[in-house]
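Justification of resources, computational component.

The compute hours requested in this renewal are based largely on the per-chain cost of generating structure records like the one below. Each record pairs the submitted sequence with a full structure-token output. That output is archived, and it is also reused by downstream analysis tasks.
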Amino acid sequence: MKRFYLYSFLILFLIFINKTGTAQNIKEIRTIASENIKSMNISPDNSIVIVGKSNGNVRAYNLLNGESVFVNERQQKEISSVNFNKAGNYFLASSFDRSIIVYKTATGTLLKNISGSPSSVWTAIFSPDGKYIISGGDEGNVKVWDITTSKLFRDLSGHTDRIYALNITPDGKYIVSASQDHLLKIWDLSKGMLLYTLKGHTNEVRDVTISPNGKMAASSAKDNNIILWNLADGSLMKTLKGHQWHVLSVSFSPDSKYLISSSWDKTIRLWDIATGEAIQTITDHESPVLGVKFSRDGKYIVSIDENNIKIWESGFDFADAVEKGN
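The structure output for this chain reads:
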């Protein structure tokens, strides 16, 4: 009988491990106190975390020791997004003062100021080849800027309200936009053409991310849900439910098998894409979690609330996925 109970316990334990996987290994390694945080990103080499603040400041911290690297005070209003180019030697910061500024990552030196936006800029990203900056803001258009000339290359209209977030496929062919109008749209960059309008959310879509394998997009919204989309045809693949309030950000793991999300409900959730289940919920933040991201190699996870940056070890080994470029 004792042997029976032992076997039963082992079976239940193995089922638990299979369901939760290595997700239980996520652990916090550092908290960096920093006031008025609104946006964040991690350099591709994991050396620094850059945060944008409500007062227009951009501040960089060493990811491993938490020390301040530089602070830049050139923009006048809230920094809505921070994003790196593919190599990581430059980053850009978009602002409600209508500016998009390109900085040198190592020093925070200003390299270029694109100031032709007609309204507050909520998001701006580099194209993978570094030729363009793509932005979105209050007027609802996707704007593509030539980075060499700083001139507008394309002005893509279709949304009827503010664009909160943008992302681009790894091959640089397709842009995905997320809007206050509850919709996402997929655009062909080279043709300047709308391909698909994605309907599924019932409230403002706050973020969109694209899987490293280029096959899926994930969006998060004020309807408390996350939706996975097939980029090949714009179809809805799966809805992830679990957050109790607005889902503010989403980020894929390097192997495209996991997704991490943050919410106004003060939690971070790690999702298994195959099952659609949350396999870990982190409740260490004491206020809404405004953003969360996997590092490019997946070794670290960084999350922010208004006054803290938290650095986590993911517990995953994505070395094979990173080496293959997936």
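The two ends are 49 Å apart (CA to CA). The first strand starts at residue 27 and ends at 33.
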